[in-house]
Amino acid sequence: MAQANDINHQPFEVLPAADGAVAGPVRSPRNIEQSLPNSIHNDAVAQKLGLRGGTVAGSLHMEQFPPLLVSLFGAEWWSNGGLSLYFKYATTDREAVQCFAKRPDSPDLGEQAPVWMDTEDGRLVAEGTAWTGRTQAPTPLSERAANVPPPRDLRIFRDFGIGRAMEGIPVRINEAALARRLDVIVEPLDEYVAPSRYGERVLPPSMLVQALTAYHTTMLQHWPDLGVGLYGAIEIEHLAGPCFVEHDYEARGEVLAVGETPKTEYLWYESILSEPSGGADRARMLMMLRFMKDSSPAWQ
Q1: pLDDT of 78-117, one tens digit each?
Q2: Domains of the chain: residue spans and CATH
Q3: What distance in Å separates the CA atoms of residue 37 and residue 46, rounded to the nearest whole number?
Protein backbone atom coordinates (compact mmCIF):
# COMPACT_ATOMS: atom_id res chain seq x y z
CA MET A 1 0.00 0.00 0.00
CA ALA A 2 1.23 3.46 -0.86
CA GLN A 3 1.99 5.58 2.19
CA ALA A 4 0.75 9.08 2.92
CA ASN A 5 3.34 11.63 3.97
CA ASP A 6 2.20 11.46 7.61
CA ILE A 7 3.83 9.31 10.30
CA ASN A 8 0.50 9.16 12.14
CA HIS A 9 -1.47 7.86 9.15
CA GLN A 10 -3.53 4.81 10.07
CA PRO A 11 -4.18 2.14 7.42
CA PHE A 12 -7.65 2.08 5.90
CA GLU A 13 -10.20 -0.26 7.42
CA VAL A 14 -13.95 -0.61 7.03
CA LEU A 15 -15.69 0.31 10.27
CA PRO A 16 -19.26 -0.46 11.36
CA ALA A 17 -21.58 2.54 11.71
CA ALA A 18 -25.15 3.16 12.81
CA ASP A 19 -28.17 1.69 10.98
CA GLY A 20 -26.15 -0.88 9.07
CA ALA A 21 -23.87 1.64 7.39
CA VAL A 22 -20.11 1.28 7.05
CA ALA A 23 -17.45 3.96 7.41
CA GLY A 24 -13.83 4.67 6.67
CA PRO A 25 -11.38 6.01 9.25
CA VAL A 26 -11.48 9.62 10.40
CA ARG A 27 -9.13 11.69 8.23
CA SER A 28 -7.93 15.31 8.32
CA PRO A 29 -7.56 16.65 4.75
CA ARG A 30 -5.08 19.43 4.06
CA ASN A 31 -5.93 22.69 2.35
CA ILE A 32 -2.71 23.19 0.40
CA GLU A 33 -4.16 26.03 -1.71
CA GLN A 34 -4.35 28.60 1.09
CA SER A 35 -1.87 30.91 -0.64
CA LEU A 36 -3.93 31.29 -3.83
CA PRO A 37 -5.10 34.91 -4.25
CA ASN A 38 -8.79 35.65 -4.78
CA SER A 39 -9.62 32.05 -3.90
CA ILE A 40 -12.16 30.47 -1.56
CA HIS A 41 -9.22 28.39 -0.25
CA ASN A 42 -7.46 31.54 1.01
CA ASP A 43 -8.22 32.26 4.69
CA ALA A 44 -8.56 36.03 4.30
CA VAL A 45 -10.76 35.77 1.21
CA ALA A 46 -13.01 33.10 2.72
CA GLN A 47 -13.41 34.96 6.01
CA LYS A 48 -14.32 38.16 4.18
CA LEU A 49 -17.12 36.19 2.51
CA GLY A 50 -18.42 34.93 5.85
CA LEU A 51 -16.75 31.52 6.04
CA ARG A 52 -14.63 30.25 8.93
CA GLY A 53 -11.48 30.04 6.82
CA GLY A 54 -10.05 28.80 3.55
CA THR A 55 -12.02 25.75 2.47
CA VAL A 56 -10.93 22.24 1.55
CA ALA A 57 -12.14 21.69 -2.02
CA GLY A 58 -14.98 19.24 -2.45
CA SER A 59 -12.94 17.35 -5.04
CA LEU A 60 -10.36 16.60 -2.32
CA HIS A 61 -13.08 15.15 -0.08
CA MET A 62 -13.85 12.73 -2.90
CA GLU A 63 -10.39 11.18 -2.43
CA GLN A 64 -11.56 9.71 0.88
CA PHE A 65 -14.22 7.47 -0.69
CA PRO A 66 -12.51 5.04 -3.14
CA PRO A 67 -11.32 2.40 -0.63
CA LEU A 68 -14.76 2.35 1.00
CA LEU A 69 -16.45 2.05 -2.40
CA VAL A 70 -14.11 -0.73 -3.51
CA SER A 71 -15.04 -2.58 -0.31
CA LEU A 72 -18.71 -2.32 -1.35
CA PHE A 73 -18.53 -2.79 -5.12
CA GLY A 74 -15.15 -4.41 -5.74
CA ALA A 75 -12.40 -3.19 -8.04
CA GLU A 76 -15.03 -2.79 -10.79
CA TRP A 77 -15.73 0.62 -9.29
CA TRP A 78 -12.56 1.88 -11.02
CA SER A 79 -13.80 0.59 -14.39
CA ASN A 80 -17.48 1.58 -14.48
CA GLY A 81 -18.33 3.13 -11.12
CA GLY A 82 -19.43 6.57 -10.06
CA LEU A 83 -19.52 8.91 -7.06
CA SER A 84 -21.96 11.81 -6.77
CA LEU A 85 -21.80 14.39 -3.95
CA TYR A 86 -23.69 17.57 -3.06
CA PHE A 87 -21.61 19.69 -0.69
CA LYS A 88 -23.41 21.04 2.37
CA TYR A 89 -20.75 22.35 4.78
CA ALA A 90 -17.32 23.79 4.02
CA THR A 91 -14.45 22.40 6.08
CA THR A 92 -11.07 24.00 6.74
CA ASP A 93 -7.45 22.81 6.86
CA ARG A 94 -6.99 19.57 8.84
CA GLU A 95 -10.61 19.51 10.02
CA ALA A 96 -11.43 15.87 10.76
CA VAL A 97 -14.07 14.19 8.58
CA GLN A 98 -15.33 10.64 8.02
CA CYS A 99 -17.02 9.07 5.00
CA PHE A 100 -19.94 6.65 5.20
CA ALA A 101 -21.91 4.38 2.89
CA LYS A 102 -24.82 1.98 2.98
CA ARG A 103 -24.85 -1.13 0.87
CA PRO A 104 -27.22 -0.90 -2.10
CA ASP A 105 -30.63 -2.52 -1.67
CA SER A 106 -29.88 -5.01 -4.44
CA PRO A 107 -26.67 -6.38 -5.99
CA ASP A 108 -27.75 -5.33 -9.49
CA LEU A 109 -25.41 -3.15 -11.51
CA GLY A 110 -26.49 0.47 -11.49
CA GLU A 111 -28.15 0.31 -8.09
CA GLN A 112 -27.15 3.46 -6.19
CA ALA A 113 -25.83 3.27 -2.63
CA PRO A 114 -26.27 6.24 -0.27
CA VAL A 115 -22.96 7.89 0.73
CA TRP A 116 -22.14 10.87 2.91
CA MET A 117 -19.42 12.61 4.90
CA ASP A 118 -19.63 14.06 8.42
CA THR A 119 -17.38 16.12 10.64
CA GLU A 120 -16.42 14.62 14.00
CA ASP A 121 -19.17 16.62 15.70
CA GLY A 122 -21.81 15.33 13.29
CA ARG A 123 -22.14 18.13 10.72
CA LEU A 124 -23.08 16.86 7.28
CA VAL A 125 -20.30 17.86 4.86
CA ALA A 126 -21.62 16.11 1.75
CA GLU A 127 -24.27 13.61 0.70
CA GLY A 128 -25.01 11.64 -2.43
CA THR A 129 -24.75 8.23 -4.05
CA ALA A 130 -22.25 5.77 -5.53
CA TRP A 131 -22.64 2.85 -7.94
CA THR A 132 -21.12 0.51 -10.49
CA GLY A 133 -22.56 0.07 -13.97
CA ARG A 134 -24.80 2.70 -15.54
CA THR A 135 -27.34 3.95 -13.00
CA GLN A 136 -30.83 2.46 -13.20
CA ALA A 137 -32.42 5.73 -12.04
CA PRO A 138 -31.37 9.38 -12.25
CA THR A 139 -28.92 10.43 -9.57
CA PRO A 140 -30.05 13.08 -7.09
CA LEU A 141 -27.58 15.50 -8.70
CA SER A 142 -28.89 14.92 -12.22
CA GLU A 143 -32.40 15.58 -10.92
CA ARG A 144 -31.21 18.84 -9.35
CA ALA A 145 -29.59 19.91 -12.61
CA ALA A 146 -32.76 19.12 -14.54
CA ASN A 147 -35.00 21.09 -12.18
CA VAL A 148 -33.25 24.44 -11.66
CA PRO A 149 -35.83 27.18 -10.93
CA PRO A 150 -35.87 30.06 -13.41
CA PRO A 151 -33.40 32.69 -12.13
CA ARG A 152 -34.88 36.07 -11.19
CA ASP A 153 -31.78 38.28 -11.07
CA LEU A 154 -28.63 37.13 -12.84
CA ARG A 155 -25.77 39.59 -13.03
CA ILE A 156 -22.62 37.45 -13.28
CA PHE A 157 -24.24 35.17 -15.88
CA ARG A 158 -26.61 37.67 -17.46
CA ASP A 159 -26.98 36.81 -21.16
CA PHE A 160 -24.99 33.62 -20.58
CA GLY A 161 -27.69 31.10 -21.48
CA ILE A 162 -27.44 27.32 -21.64
CA GLY A 163 -26.07 24.99 -24.27
CA ARG A 164 -22.60 26.56 -24.45
CA ALA A 165 -20.49 23.72 -25.78
CA MET A 166 -16.81 23.21 -26.46
CA GLU A 167 -14.86 20.17 -27.58
CA GLY A 168 -11.35 19.05 -28.40
CA ILE A 169 -9.76 20.65 -25.32
CA PRO A 170 -6.37 18.94 -24.76
CA VAL A 171 -5.83 17.58 -21.24
CA ARG A 172 -2.87 15.85 -19.63
CA ILE A 173 -2.20 15.45 -15.89
CA ASN A 174 1.55 15.26 -15.34
CA GLU A 175 3.65 13.40 -12.79
CA ALA A 176 4.51 16.56 -10.86
CA ALA A 177 0.83 17.35 -10.26
CA LEU A 178 0.15 13.81 -9.10
CA ALA A 179 3.17 13.85 -6.80
CA ARG A 180 1.92 17.02 -5.09
CA ARG A 181 -1.41 15.35 -4.35
CA LEU A 182 0.15 12.12 -3.13
CA ASP A 183 2.21 14.07 -0.60
CA VAL A 184 -0.97 14.94 1.30
CA ILE A 185 -3.64 12.52 0.09
CA VAL A 186 -5.73 11.09 2.94
CA GLU A 187 -6.25 7.64 1.38
CA PRO A 188 -3.07 6.57 -0.44
CA LEU A 189 -3.67 3.61 -2.77
CA ASP A 190 -1.30 1.39 -4.71
CA GLU A 191 -3.20 2.20 -7.92
CA TYR A 192 -1.88 5.78 -7.72
CA VAL A 193 1.81 4.77 -7.59
CA ALA A 194 2.12 1.36 -9.27
CA PRO A 195 0.96 0.44 -12.80
CA SER A 196 0.68 -3.27 -12.01
CA ARG A 197 -3.14 -3.56 -12.06
CA TYR A 198 -4.09 -1.34 -15.01
CA GLY A 199 -0.81 -0.88 -16.88
CA GLU A 200 -0.62 2.82 -15.98
CA ARG A 201 -0.90 4.88 -12.79
CA VAL A 202 -4.47 5.80 -11.91
CA LEU A 203 -5.66 9.37 -11.30
CA PRO A 204 -7.27 9.95 -7.87
CA PRO A 205 -10.78 11.46 -7.99
CA SER A 206 -9.50 14.99 -7.37
CA MET A 207 -7.21 14.80 -10.39
CA LEU A 208 -9.93 13.29 -12.55
CA VAL A 209 -12.02 16.32 -11.58
CA GLN A 210 -9.09 18.58 -12.47
CA ALA A 211 -8.94 17.02 -15.93
CA LEU A 212 -12.68 17.37 -16.48
CA THR A 213 -12.77 21.01 -15.33
CA ALA A 214 -10.66 21.89 -18.37
CA TYR A 215 -14.01 22.59 -20.03
CA HIS A 216 -15.15 25.31 -17.64
CA THR A 217 -11.70 26.86 -17.15
CA THR A 218 -11.43 27.23 -20.93
CA MET A 219 -15.01 28.40 -21.42
CA LEU A 220 -14.93 31.00 -18.63
CA GLN A 221 -11.37 32.30 -19.00
CA HIS A 222 -12.54 35.58 -20.56
CA TRP A 223 -15.95 35.89 -18.87
CA PRO A 224 -16.01 39.14 -16.85
CA ASP A 225 -16.77 39.71 -13.17
CA LEU A 226 -16.87 36.07 -12.09
CA GLY A 227 -15.63 36.68 -8.56
CA VAL A 228 -14.71 33.84 -6.19
CA GLY A 229 -15.81 30.38 -7.28
CA LEU A 230 -16.37 27.11 -5.45
CA TYR A 231 -17.65 23.62 -6.17
CA GLY A 232 -21.28 23.15 -5.16
CA ALA A 233 -21.64 19.54 -6.31
CA ILE A 234 -19.62 17.00 -8.29
CA GLU A 235 -20.55 13.70 -9.91
CA ILE A 236 -17.83 11.61 -11.55
CA GLU A 237 -18.24 8.35 -13.42
CA HIS A 238 -15.71 5.99 -14.98
CA LEU A 239 -17.04 4.98 -18.39
CA ALA A 240 -14.33 2.59 -19.58
CA GLY A 241 -11.73 1.94 -16.91
CA PRO A 242 -9.79 4.44 -14.80
CA CYS A 243 -7.97 7.46 -16.22
CA PHE A 244 -4.19 7.79 -16.02
CA VAL A 245 -1.34 10.18 -15.31
CA GLU A 246 0.85 11.35 -18.23
CA HIS A 247 -1.84 10.31 -20.70
CA ASP A 248 -3.24 12.57 -23.43
CA TYR A 249 -6.99 13.11 -23.36
CA GLU A 250 -9.50 15.54 -24.80
CA ALA A 251 -12.32 17.20 -22.87
CA ARG A 252 -15.66 18.41 -24.14
CA GLY A 253 -18.62 19.85 -22.29
CA GLU A 254 -21.92 21.70 -22.31
CA VAL A 255 -23.75 24.02 -19.92
CA LEU A 256 -27.03 22.46 -18.79
CA ALA A 257 -28.53 25.13 -16.52
CA VAL A 258 -27.86 28.49 -14.89
CA GLY A 259 -29.36 29.55 -11.56
CA GLU A 260 -29.02 31.58 -8.39
CA THR A 261 -29.33 31.47 -4.62
CA PRO A 262 -29.35 34.43 -2.21
CA LYS A 263 -25.53 34.25 -1.98
CA THR A 264 -24.40 32.71 -5.27
CA GLU A 265 -24.93 32.42 -8.99
CA TYR A 266 -24.20 28.99 -10.40
CA LEU A 267 -24.13 26.87 -13.49
CA TRP A 268 -24.52 23.15 -14.06
CA TYR A 269 -22.46 21.54 -16.77
CA GLU A 270 -21.51 18.09 -17.98
CA SER A 271 -18.05 17.30 -19.32
CA ILE A 272 -16.59 14.17 -20.92
CA LEU A 273 -12.97 13.00 -21.03
CA SER A 274 -12.07 10.94 -24.08
CA GLU A 275 -9.14 9.55 -25.98
CA PRO A 276 -7.83 12.09 -28.53
CA SER A 277 -9.22 12.57 -32.03
CA GLY A 278 -12.67 11.21 -31.34
CA GLY A 279 -11.52 8.18 -29.38
CA ALA A 280 -13.43 6.30 -26.70
CA ASP A 281 -15.05 8.19 -23.84
CA ARG A 282 -13.28 7.42 -20.55
CA ALA A 283 -14.98 9.50 -17.84
CA ARG A 284 -17.89 11.84 -17.25
CA MET A 285 -18.53 14.65 -14.77
CA LEU A 286 -21.60 16.62 -13.75
CA MET A 287 -20.66 19.79 -11.85
CA MET A 288 -22.45 22.59 -10.06
CA LEU A 289 -20.05 25.54 -10.12
CA ARG A 290 -20.93 28.44 -7.81
CA PHE A 291 -19.69 32.04 -7.72
CA MET A 292 -20.11 34.23 -4.63
CA LYS A 293 -22.20 37.34 -5.32
CA ASP A 294 -20.41 39.39 -2.66
CA SER A 295 -17.08 38.81 -4.44
CA SER A 296 -18.19 39.83 -7.93
CA PRO A 297 -18.01 43.39 -9.30
CA ALA A 298 -21.33 42.65 -10.98
CA TRP A 299 -22.97 42.71 -7.54
CA GLN A 300 -21.23 45.79 -6.12
Answers
A1: 999 999 999 999 999 999 999 999 998 877 889 999 999 9
A2: 15-299 (3.10.129.10)
A3: 11
